[in-house]
Design brief:
alpha+beta; 14 strands; four-stranded antiparallel sheet; elongated
Length: 333
């Protein structure tokens, strides 16, 4: 009997304890549990710094832009109350991955930098696939590594149309390109106008720029076009065709010939003109009178000459020629 009572008492104690624990675990109107669920989300929205682990949030918008074999890693600046924020970049290619057992190399000039652009042209120097990663640092806090969406290979670079400057010099054309690099070349195509099917091509490297296209025919017109190219035969769009006329040049040793010929020609033309005028005036007076007729003097001028002669005659002859003249003066009114 005593044992049965003891068992009943123990069962009652267990039941009461279970009911108390159940009441403690039950939520009161759902308030505390809802707050616990929303708290992590609120912490993430309010601040990018995770104070529990001492890490910054990872940089966002990480990508690689490549044009004409020049490669830049870019990302968005990290928005955080911690200042100043610096960034460091590492890369891993075939050599680092398989020869150096998966190690990473620090990108030169991209360690503890405050900018958001890193030049990786020198680091990504082979045609293998490269992994690139980036992290932020601020006052001892370090973010996780962030990487572009996919590995990068420089063969995927974008090629632009080359900037070609050409000028005629004598019987040749000087062609220069302003955007050549050690890994980007230019294919120059040139032909005589109207004979494009017989065009020739020249492989222009940085060492051969400017290029001298000589031995061209004087008086002819030549056309040029170019496109950027890689060693794997990847090419850009072709430039607009430019045509140049090769003028006929004069040998410097005979530069005096042209002005001399002009002077001699002027002297000859002047002499012929004077000789023709003399022949007309002396040998063909009739023709001269026809072209420039000579009008006879009027009678008044002839009488005047006679009167002039008479004035020097003796006095009595002059007296006979005088006639009295009556002058009538009207009376004033």
């Amino acid at each position: 009997m005593k044992e049965r009572g003891t068992e009943r008492q123990s069962q009652g104690l267990v039941g009461r304890e279970g009911s108390v624990e159940g009441r403690r675990g039950m939520p009161m109107n759902g308030g505390p549990s809802a707050l616990m669920l929303l708290l992590p989300l609120l912490l993430r929205l309010i601040s990018p710094i995770r104070t529990d682990t001492g890490k910054l949030s990872s940089p966002q918008g990480v990508l690689i832009e490549s044009t004409n074999m020049k490669h830049w890693l870019k990302w968005r600046p990290l928005q955080a109350p911690c200042h100043p924020i610096s960034y460091s970049v590492q890369y891993q290619g075939y050599f680092e991955l398989y020869i150096k057992n998966g190690s990473w190399e620090d990108a030169p000039y991209c360690q503890n930098m405050d900018g958001v652009v890193c030049d990786l042209t020198a680091s990504l120097g082979s045609d293998s696939d490269y992994n690139v990663r980036l992290r932020a640092e601020c006052r001892g806090q370090v973010s996780d590594w962030a990487s572009p969406a996919a590995p990068f290979n420089r063969r995927e670079t974008n090629l632009t149309v080359p900037k070609m400057n050409a000028a005629v010099s004598g019987d040749s054309i000087q062609v220069a390109f302003t955007d050549l690099t050690e890994t980007v070349d230019v294919i120059l195509k040139h032909w005589r106008k109207g004979l494009e099917q017989e065009a020739s091509t020249q492989h222009i490297t940085m060492e051969r720029s400017p290029f001298h296209l000589g031995g061209l025919q004087e008086g002819a017109t030549y056309c040029l076009s170019a496109q950027t190219a890689l060693h794997n035969n990847k090419r850009s769009v072709t430039t607009e065709t430019q045509c140049f006329n090769i003028a006929v040049s004069i040998d410097p040793a005979h530069s005096w010939l042209k002005p001399t010929v002009v002077c001699v020609a002027l002297v000859i033309v002047t002499g012929l003109g004077l000789a023709a005028f003399w022949c007309v005036t002396k040998c063909c007076p009739t023709l001269l009178n026809t072209c420039w007729p000579k009008e006879p003097l009027p009678d008044a001028l002839l009488h005047r000459e006679a009167d002039t002669r008479l004035r020097f005659a003796p006095g009595e002859e002059l007296h006979e020629l005088c006639q009295p003249v009556l002058v009538l003066i009207p009376d004033p009114v």
